[in-house]
Structures are given as C-alpha cells and as structure tokens.
C-alpha cells in the first residue's frame, strides 16, 4: 500500500490507463469540469486539448460548440454525484449531436481508485509515481 491506500496492482493499472488516455489525447480532446482538473492532467503530462466545462455556458451550448469542432471526445468528470450527473447529461447531449463519447477512462479510473480519489483534480497527486 502507498500513501493513498491504493494497492500496488491498482496503482499500476491507474498509470497504464493514464498512459493510454494521454496517447488518445493527442488526437481527442478531454472534457473536464474545471481549471484545476485541467491543470492536474497537464501536471501528469497531458499535452492535448483539454476543454473546461465550467465556463459559464449551459451544457447544451457546450455540447453544440464541441460538436461543431470535434467528432470524438473523452469525458472525464469527477466520480462524485455531480460528476456522474454531468457525465451522463453530456454523453446524451453530445451523442445526440453525433459525437462519439469515450467514458471508459472515467469508468476504469473510478474502478481502480475506488474511494481513495474522487476528483480529477486529485489525480495530480499521482504526478510523481508513488511506490
């Protein structure tokens, strides 16, 4: 176990998932809730387009804007009640605009992080591999 209470095996899986998502992010933007989420991903080495949801626009307007610019997107909202609501709502809005939505990374990270990390922002604690 490490400082987060996450097993070594789960932590290895989390790093593998983050590496896969980083590679996809070279071509597919990631949609996060706020500025600190974007910063956390950048600290983890993400260099692709990261779109911030909380920008003062409605979910429908954001979905329309995204669908004009992108055909695929990775939805990575927090693993709390609000984040789950936002993920589901955005998935439906974007899918209605023919955008392919990847929520697998969110699902897999949530599975391996369990109750140890509940926000995207907290992922920055993993920026230096914890062994």
From TrEMBL:
Pfam families: Toprim (PF01751). Signal peptide: none annotated. It comes from the Archaea. This is TOPRIM domain protein.
């Amino acid at each position: 176990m490490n400082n987060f209470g996450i097993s070594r095996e789960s932590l290895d899986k989390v790093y593998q998932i983050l590496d896969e998502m980083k590679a996809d992010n070279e071509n597919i933007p990631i949609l996060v809730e706020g500025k600190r989420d974007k910063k956390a991903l950048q600290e983890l080495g993400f260099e692709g387009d990261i779109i911030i949801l909380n920008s003062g626009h409605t979910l429908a307007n954001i979905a329309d804007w995204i669908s004009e610019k992108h055909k695929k997107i990775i939805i990575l909202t927090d693993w709390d009640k609000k984040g789950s609501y936002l993920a589901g709502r955005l998935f439906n809005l974007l899918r209605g605009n023919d955008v392919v939505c990847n929520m697998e990374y969110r699902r897999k990270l949530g599975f391996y992080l369990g109750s140890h990390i509940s926000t995207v922002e907290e992922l920055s604690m993993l920026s230096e591999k914890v062994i």
